[in-house]
């Protein structure tokens, strides 16, 4: 077997091992707990996938969900991104056709790890296009293991990002390929993969803006040539048309400001191409006059048209979600719902290191190398790096989009390092000095790095070539550097593994804690309560809770909810907030009007669970205040500027429905000591409930379910009736 | 007296009782220490003749209202006397529980007898009764209270005409319950005061319990479950024709309605489902029946012109009066609004004195499916664009073979780069 | 104006395949202009049909422009991997995709 084939075989083996490592490191939650869907959003995706697999694609596209957002309903078929559910369904169907009837739940749980292997492969291809196979393999290893990516793709995290990052890398790979070759078919493939991405994730806007920005930067650098024209125009025409086929996207690419840059660059390219065409045919002087007047006029007209249409309202301005990336204070003031999501908070410094390990300092090195080499595809990397860094700094959840570029840049830098230091006197014969360690341990497979000792010169020019020609003669320095970086790589793998295992593998549905003797104590209150709801309430019972739990109630308890995590209707959420925040007399008509049968609250006072509804209470108040400022006022819930829940709480606080439901009968337990707020309720502070009856409290008082009382038979006001019942 | 009661009980036991859907197990509880005890007996006689299974008992030996967890009686008449309490069987809570389970209650009081338990219970019904000793006084009538026809509720009570009333207890409606209503109001010139407080001096300083026609001599209330409660403040009234009719009302023989056979369907196809589409034509029908106590059967209620259907989601989108399509069947047709969501067909018919009718059915209105919008080829505007597309496709199909037929390009095309 | 005449001259001297491409492109521009004017006059209902028809012209135009550039022997250095035959196949493939998407869109 000659060297070429040996290298190819080695690469294949390495890629398979990388995929295996990526998959295995994401399986901790399945091993530690069970195969369950995590968190909140994945429950909705799971429910939608179940609906798709039982009702078929046509029904799914036209699905009007009458078990959420009661009584408004939700046109789910037209307001979700179907890519994830369709892919799962296809996988499920194909598996059952070849004789492996895997349950749909298991398909959904294991979906993300499976696709992470694919992402690693696409990263490899991407790195190959940028530099060479070494960079590709390193990028694959990094992307497969980096905690920034595993945080959103562990087993059970069945969210859009699971497939979106794979498609992101695929689209970018096709784009770079199309740009380098100037081929329509690669650009068409890029457009089709872009279409798939649009169907899968709302963050496709990132691609919609980064590719035009790349082209724009190339134009500014004076690097216009036909390949750019061919690749971009084909991608834009086919991709935009295809993206409008998704019902949720509809006419947005023509109507919203976020897509205008793509349209603008498209127009600009036509102008530049035309000017180029004309220049060849015309004398120099005439040309200059012509092009200046023509281009300037057209650009001015186009820009004026854009401003005019935006001012007229035909083109929607930047939506709140994306505008808040620019003006970070905007959401807090104007759209409290967006500001209240914890994933939308700015990123803290430690999380950069936590998610990226030593790649964070390799990242600038890789970008520097790109700037030095600066072929067209490296400009793309630079643009991506700048944009990605900015967005990752603004919002925690956008760390995910930064991770691929960091991994690729890291791969570039280490492969450059290896180019310099890993040359061992190979004049003619190509003896591969290959170090490969493939150890597969119990929990994870450790990654290894290949050393490509005799590269082919076909793709290496310019700056990269200078690495190859660097001649380091001292063997000791080579060994020292190589061993050091091997150590860094090993530390990267172990760090990623550790972070994935400890921080990102917990299903938020089941909480784990430790007993005083160190053994594990599982808190399964959520599932206990949802199962109680499922078994003990009528099928058409309506459950009101804060919107965080909507998807879980719909998925696990299978009951109709009033509001859920989709948060598409702010007024409806504010109505629920008002019912929770106001006293019983005000809340009861709202409950009757919405046919509410049960109310679910989460209370962490006994356990010390700080994500409970009393801690979120101020957000409920704020959101309700946004719609009814004269009835709900945030200041009334604070006693002398402090958030009190004991006897010093304000009257408004004590009379609010949420307070009463959380602390009903609480002084009987644990001496009334609220472990989260650190305050104590005495028995005289115990609230009385008039309009609801306690139906269920879970084992650790984490979830409490109340049944709404029917109208009084005698026609009395419900509080008066309750008072009479208590007195007799 | 005791003999007559014994005799009455024996008579009851020997009677054949006909079972009726609305319940005719009547309990008459008499406190014979008072002087209105004969009222209980005469009423029980009249109900026996109407087919009720009447049990008359003394207050002390009254049977429990529940047996084996169910109601033992359907109707209860309480005739109080001097005894202050009514015993543990007839406290306010027991009365309310009995009522909430569907039992009907009539309570008598008089100017002399007004036990606290009855007053507590009536207060929950929204009727505030004067304490023991409160009587109506009318100085402009001839020493007795005349009750005239303006006091009566139409179609529940049909007898009109004055009756003289002596020694009547007083009540007023407090407004805490919206289902309470008066049967007989006091005349404008009457007032009620507690004569036990009147020791002859300074009678002008005693504040009246109620004055004018705000005071009531008989009042009633109906629960949402259809059970009825009536209070009559004087034995004269109770034994008059008014009292007879009030008692018939209270014991579910007058003004009893029910709603059956509620259905909704598509107007064109008659297909009924829980999922309709926006802008569908829908048809709604319900059968309303009234209890005919003479024939002891349910008869269609004819001629009602005020039964309304609400088609609502949070707020009513439509409020339509049902029209009588056939005897007792009321229907209406309408087009579903252009709004999708979960809508309720709601009938909430509440008329004082008649059984409340309540029917709520929730259906889903879904938006148009992908292929239910107007198709492109049916819209004339889009023909232009469709023709544009087809011409492009045809041009493409012509272009390809022609291109392949022409010779390939070998020489450069000027200095062009387009 | 000299620009215009020199462009027309260039077209006249072009090889037959180029001429064919140019004719098709001009036809597409006309079709697009007609549709756009119609939309301005009559209003943009149904919007998806207008977008579909108009984008079909734009997309086809772009594909043709790409084909034209790729087939021009002068640009051989730029398109090293893409032979003229390959360019044509790519063009057909892209056009088929475009037609399919627009057909779905208009309905």
UniProtKB/TrEMBL annotation, chain A:
Its cofactor is Mn(2+); Mg(2+). It is found in: Endoplasmic reticulum membrane. Pathway: Protein modification; protein glycosylation. Belongs to the STT3 family. GO terms for molecular function: dolichyl-diphosphooligosaccharide-protein glycotransferase activity; metal ion binding. It comes from Wickerhamiella sorbophila. Catalytic subunit of the oligosaccharyl transferase (OST) complex that catalyzes the initial transfer of a defined glycan (Glc(3)Man(9)GlcNAc(2) in eukaryotes) from the lipid carrier dolichol-pyrophosphate to an asparagine residue within an Asn-X-Ser/Thr consensus motif in nascent polypeptide chains, the first step in protein N-glycosylation. N-glycosylation occurs cotranslationally and the complex associates with the Sec61 complex at the channel-forming translocon complex that mediates protein translocation across the endoplasmic reticulum (ER). It catalyses: a di-trans,poly-cis-dolichyl diphosphooligosaccharide + L-asparaginyl-[protein] = N(4)-(oligosaccharide-(1->4)-N-acetyl-beta-D-glucosaminyl-(1->4)-N-acetyl-beta-D-glucosaminyl)-L-asparaginyl-[protein] + a di-trans,poly-cis-dolichyl diphosphate + H(+). Residues 10-409 form the Oligosaccharyl transferase STT3 N-terminal domain. It comes from the Eukaryota. Its EC number is 2.4.99.18. InterPro entries: Oligo_trans_STT3, STT3-PglB_core, STT3_N. One of its GO terms (cellular component) is oligosaccharyltransferase complex. This is Dolichyl-diphosphooligosaccharide--protein glycosyltransferase subunit STT3. Residues 542-592 form the STT3/PglB/AglB core domain. It holds the Pfam family STT3. It is a multi-pass membrane protein. One of its GO terms (biological process) is post-translational protein modification. The chain crosses the membrane at residues 12-31, 79-95, 107-127, 133-150, 162-195, 201-221, 233-254, 260-278, 290-316, 352-371, 378-396. Keywords: Endoplasmic reticulum, Glycoprotein, Glycosyltransferase, Magnesium, Manganese, Membrane, Metal-binding, Transferase, Transmembrane, Transmembrane helix.
From TrEMBL, chain B:
It comes from the Eukaryota. It is a single-pass type I membrane protein. PANTHER family: DOLICHYL-DIPHOSPHOOLIGOSACCHARIDE--PROTEIN GLYCOSYLTRANSFERASE 48 KDA SUBUNIT. It holds the Pfam family OST48_N. One of its GO terms (molecular function) is transferase activity. InterPro entries: DDOST_48_kDa_subunit (IPR005013), OST48_MD (IPR055459), OST48_N (IPR055457). Pathway: Protein modification; protein glycosylation. GO terms for biological process: protein N-linked glycosylation via asparagine. Its main location: endoplasmic reticulum. This is Dolichyl-diphosphooligosaccharide--protein glycosyltransferase subunit WBP1. Component of the oligosaccharyltransferase (OST) complex. It comes from Wickerhamiella sorbophila.
From TrEMBL, chain C:
Pfam families: DAD. This is Dolichyl-diphosphooligosaccharide--protein glycosyltransferase subunit OST2. InterPro entries: DAD/Ost2. GO terms for molecular function: transferase activity. Subunit of the oligosaccharyl transferase (OST) complex that catalyzes the initial transfer of a defined glycan (Glc(3)Man(9)GlcNAc(2) in eukaryotes) from the lipid carrier dolichol-pyrophosphate to an asparagine residue within an Asn-X-Ser/Thr consensus motif in nascent polypeptide chains, the first step in protein N-glycosylation. N-glycosylation occurs cotranslationally and the complex associates with the Sec61 complex at the channel-forming translocon complex that mediates protein translocation across the endoplasmic reticulum (ER). All subunits are required for a maximal enzyme activity. Keywords: Endoplasmic reticulum, Membrane, Transferase, Transmembrane, Transmembrane helix. It comes from the Eukaryota. GO terms for cellular component: oligosaccharyltransferase complex. One of its GO terms (biological process) is protein N-linked glycosylation. The chain crosses the membrane at residues 20-43, 49-67, 87-106. Component of the oligosaccharyltransferase (OST) complex. It is a multi-pass membrane protein. Pathway: Protein modification; protein glycosylation. It is found in: Endoplasmic reticulum membrane. Belongs to the DAD/OST2 family.
């Amino acid at each position: 077997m000659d060297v070429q084939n040996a290298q190819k075989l080695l690469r294949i083996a390495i890629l398979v091992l990388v995929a295996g490592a990526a998959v295995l490191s994401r399986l901790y939650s399945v091993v530690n707990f069970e195969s369950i869907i995590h968190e909140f959003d994945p429950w909705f995706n799971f429910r939608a996938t179940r609906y798709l697999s039982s009702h078929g694609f046509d029904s799914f596209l036209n699905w009007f969900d009458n078990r959420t957002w009661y009584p408004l309903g939700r046109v789910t078929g037209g307001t979700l991104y179907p890519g994830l559910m369709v892919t799962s369904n296809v996988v499920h169907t194909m598996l059952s056709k070849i004789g492996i009837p895997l349950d749909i739940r298991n398909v959904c749980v294991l979906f993300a790890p499976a696709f992470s292997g694919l992402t690693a492969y696409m990263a490899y291809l991407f790195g190959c296009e940028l530099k060479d196979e070494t960079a590709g393999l390193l990028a694959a290893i990094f992307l497969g293991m980096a905690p920034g990516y595993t945080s959103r793709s562990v087993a059970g995290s069945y969210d859009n990002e699971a497939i979106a990052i794979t498609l992101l890398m695929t689209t970018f790979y096709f784009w770079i390929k199309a740009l380098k070759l100037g081929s329509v078919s690669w650009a068409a493939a890029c457009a089709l993969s872009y279409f798939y991405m649009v169907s899968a994730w709302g963050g496709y806007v990132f691609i919609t803006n980064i590719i035009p920005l790349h082209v724009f930067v190339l134009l500014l650098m004076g690097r216009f040539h036909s390949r750019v024209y061919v690749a971009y125009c084909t991608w834009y025409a086919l991709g935009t048309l295809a993206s409008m086929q998704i019902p949720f996207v509809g006419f947005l690419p023509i109507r919203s400001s976020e897509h205008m840059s793509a349209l603008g660059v498209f127009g600009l390219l036509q102008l530049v191409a035309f000017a180029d065409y004309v220049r060849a045919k015309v004398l120099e002087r005439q040309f200059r006059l012509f092009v200046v007047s023509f281009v300037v006029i057209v650009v001015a007209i186009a820009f004026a048209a854009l401003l005019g249409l935006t001012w007229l309202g035909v083109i929607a301005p930047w939506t709140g979600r994306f505008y808040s990336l620019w003006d970070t204070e905007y959401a807090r003031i104007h759209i409290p719902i967006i500001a209240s999501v914890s994933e939308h908070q700015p990123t803290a410094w430690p999380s950069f290191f936590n998610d990226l390990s030593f790649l964070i300092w390799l990242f600038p090195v890789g970008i520097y190398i790109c700037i030095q080499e600066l072929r067209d595809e490296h400009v793309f990397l630079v643009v991506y790096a700048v944009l990605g860094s900015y967005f990752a700094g603004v919002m925690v959840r956008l760390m995910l989009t930064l991770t691929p570029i960091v991994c690729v840049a890291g791969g570039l830098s280490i492969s450059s390092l290896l180019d310099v230091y890993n040359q061992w006197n190979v004049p003619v014969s190509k003896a591969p000095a290959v170090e490969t360690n493939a150890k597969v341990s119990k929990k994870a497979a450790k990654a290894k790095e290949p050393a490509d000792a005799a590269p082919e010169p076909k793709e290496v020019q310019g700056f990269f070539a200078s690495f190859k020609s660097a001649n380091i003669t001292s063997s000791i320095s080579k060994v020292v550097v190589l061993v050091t970086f091997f150590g860094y790589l090993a530390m990267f793998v172990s760090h990623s593994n550790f972070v994935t295992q400890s921080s990102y593998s917990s299903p938020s549905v089941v909480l784990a804690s430790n007993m005083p003797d160190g053994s594990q104590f599982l808190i399964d209150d959520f599932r206990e309560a949802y199962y109680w709801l499922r078994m003990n309430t009528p099928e058409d019972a309506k459950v009101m809770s804060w919107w965080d739990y909507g998807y879980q109630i719909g998925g696990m308890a299978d009951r109709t909810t009033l509001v859920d995590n989709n948060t598409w209707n702010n007024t409806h959420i504010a109505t629920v907030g008002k019912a929770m925040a106001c006293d019983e007399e005000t809340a009861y008509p709202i409950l009757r009007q919405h046919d509410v049968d049960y109310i679910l609250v989460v209370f962490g006072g006994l356990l010390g669970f700080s994500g409970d509804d009393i801690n979120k209470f101020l957000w409920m108040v704020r959101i309700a205040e946004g719609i009814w400022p004269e009835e709900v006022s945030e200041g009334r819930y604070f006693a002398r500027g402090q958030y009190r829940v004991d006897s010093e709480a304000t009257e408004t606080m004590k009379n609010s429905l949420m307070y009463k439901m959380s602390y009903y009968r609480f002084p009987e337990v644990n001496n009334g000591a609220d472990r989260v707020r650190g305050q104590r309720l005495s028995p005289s502070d115990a609230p009385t409930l008039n309009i609801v009856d306690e139906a269920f409290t879970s084992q650790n008082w984490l979830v409490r379910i109340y049944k709404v009382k029917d109208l009084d038979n005698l026609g009395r006001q419900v509080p008066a009736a309750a008072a009479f019942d208590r007195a007799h | 007296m005791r003999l007559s009661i014994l005799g009455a009980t024996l008579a009851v036991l020997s009677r054949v009782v006909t079972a009726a859907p609305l319940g005719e197990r009547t309990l008459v509880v008499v406190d014979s220490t008072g002087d209105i005890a004969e009222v209980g007996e005469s009423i029980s006689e009249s109900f026996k003749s109407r087919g009720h299974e009447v049990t008359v008992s003394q207050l002390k030996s009254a049977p429990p209202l529940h047996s084996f967890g169910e109601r033992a009686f359907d109707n209860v008449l309480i005739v109080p006397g001097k005894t202050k309490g009514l015993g543990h069987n007839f406290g306010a809570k027991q009365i309310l529980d009995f009522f909430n389970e569907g039992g009907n209650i009539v309570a008598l009081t008089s100017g002399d007898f007004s036990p606290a338990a009855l007053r507590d219970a009536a207060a929950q019904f929204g009727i505030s009764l004067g304490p023991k000793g409160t009587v109506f006084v009318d100085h402009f009538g001839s020493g007795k209270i005349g009750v005239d026809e303006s006091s009566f509720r139409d179609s529940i009570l049909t007898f009109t005409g004055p009756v003289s009333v002596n020694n009547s207890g007083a009540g007023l409606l407090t407004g805490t319950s919206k289902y309470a209503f008066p049967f007989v109001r006091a005349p404008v010139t009457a007032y009620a005061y507690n004569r036990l407080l009147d020791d002859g001096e300074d009678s002008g300083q005693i504040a009246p319990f109620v004055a004018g026609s705000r005071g009531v001599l008989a009042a009633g209330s109906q629960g949402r479950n259809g059970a009825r409660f009536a209070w009559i403040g004087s034995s004269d009234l109770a034994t008059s024709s008014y009292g007879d009719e009030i008692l018939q009302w209270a014991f579910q023989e007058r003004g009893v309605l029910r709603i059956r056979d509620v259905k909704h369907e598509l107007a064109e196809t008659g297909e009924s489902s829980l999922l309709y589409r926006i802008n569908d034509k829908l048809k709604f029908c319900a059968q309303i029946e009234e209890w005919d106590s003479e024939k002891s059967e349910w008869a269609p209620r004819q001629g009602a012109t005020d039964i309304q259907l609400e088609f609502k989601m949070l707020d009513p989108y439509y409020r339509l009066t049902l029209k009588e399509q056939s005897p007792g069947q009321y229907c209406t047709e309408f087009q579903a609004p252009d709004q999708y969501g979960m809508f309720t067909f709601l009938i909430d018919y509440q008329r004082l004195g008649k059984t409340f009718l309540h029917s709520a059915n929730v259906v889903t209105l879904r938006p148009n499916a992908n292929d239910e919008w107007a198709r492109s080829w049916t819209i004339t505007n889009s023909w232009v664009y469709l023709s544009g597309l087809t011409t492009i496709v045809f041009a493409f199909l012509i272009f390809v073979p022609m291109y392949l037929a022409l010779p390939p390009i070998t020489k450069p095309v000027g200095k062009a780069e387009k | 104006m000299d620009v215009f005449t020199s462009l027309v001259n260039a077209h006249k001297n072009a090889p037959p395949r180029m001429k064919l491409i140019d004719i098709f492109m001009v036809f597409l521009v006309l079709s697009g202009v007609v549709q756009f004017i119609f939309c301005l006059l009559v209003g943009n209902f149904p919007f998806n049909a207008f977008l579909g028809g108009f984008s079909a012209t734009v997309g086809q135009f772009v594909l043709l422009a790409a084909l034209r550039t790729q087939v021009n022997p002068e640009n051989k250095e730029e398109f090293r991997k893409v032979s003229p035959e390959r360019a044509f196949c790519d063009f057909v493939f892209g056009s088929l995709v475009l037609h399919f998407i627009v057909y779905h869109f208009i309905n």
